[in-house]
Amino acid sequence: MLGSDVLELGIGVSLFFLLVSLLCSAVREAIETAMKSRAGDLERGLRSMLDDPQGTTIMRSLLQHGHLSSLFDGDYDPSGLKKTMLGYLYLPRKLRVGFPSYIPPTQFATALLDTIARGPADWPYPVDPRPLSIDQLRASAGLLPSPRLQRVVLSAIDHGAGDLAAVRAELEKWFNGSMDRVSGWYKRRTQYVLFAIGLIAAALLNLDALTVAHRLIDDEGLRKAVVAEASVVQGAGADALKGRTVTDVRNDLGSIGYPIGWRTLPNGGGFVPDPQTCHGRSDGCPDTKLSASIILAMILGWLVTAIATTFGAPFWFDILNKFMVVRSTVKPRQKSHDEASADASPDTPAAPAPETDPQAPAKASAQPGAGQKEAAAPPAAGPAPAPLPDIAPGDIPETWREGFVNAAEIRP
Question: Does residue 265 sit within a domain?
Fold first, then answer.
């Protein structure tokens, strides 16, 4: 029974962190929609790749190419770059609104090769209509303003071994590797943002992880309700959780019965944390003064909740699934012990297994066919068989041979 309680505690805490993470992720996505920070990271990553910190040379020419200019609204204006407190240039929000948040690798590589070989889109001279060749690309790569970008393109040409498609594939690999670095920027910043959102949400809604865990330990009814809700969440799957709004998640936390929230004191006395001050009291919770120990424990619980949100909702959904799988495996064995087979009856004696003599030689017997006489098998080489005991035919149990008695094995 103790093992079942521990699993239900793990399920309750995992579900609590999952719901809080969903709430914080919804707020994070709302902030991202308003700020377009992914677009800012992409623009900064492209300037770093192309070795164009100001965005005024190859960066601007590349984004004017038809393969990329169709991905965003308006024209790229590098003059609007602003320096942040960290020292690097960054697009302000009004310029990030029209900038794309994602560029397909194939379109990037195709636009880069065409821009290098034939010049920018606003090139004042007529465009060379001849098919793009490796020799033309190698000659144009040597005219690039950045030595670093020259080495990247020339290296791709060398590894392509004269195949233009292979050169494009090499540039796509370079682009994907650089975008992994850009994704790392976004993920690290997202963890900081989620921690801040989680801490604010924990304070506003009194989402104390330590109080939740203590209540789950003491309250069996709450554990059962949480396990039932966890079964519903597991059955719905991760896709059903993506559309949950902040209001939906907040209602879920309250409807399940988690000890969260604040309580208003009478006569305008302010707010006090409801679960920390009213648990187990029968006096109606009058005006309550918070002690220093309660305040410190509550702040520590908020910090635990905020840290848990940085792992993200997918992490806690996987943890919840693992707890549910283990519980479904262990629970039946705790309810009942192994039972004997229903076919066995105490009144029916078990049939004894036939005894075999390890020293007895192997005997071969054959059923005589029509017109044949029964022939005795020749004795096998080896030690002489042990003498059979004097047993009357009627003393042999019927179940020994299932109703058949071989007279050749019985000494009269």
Answer: yes
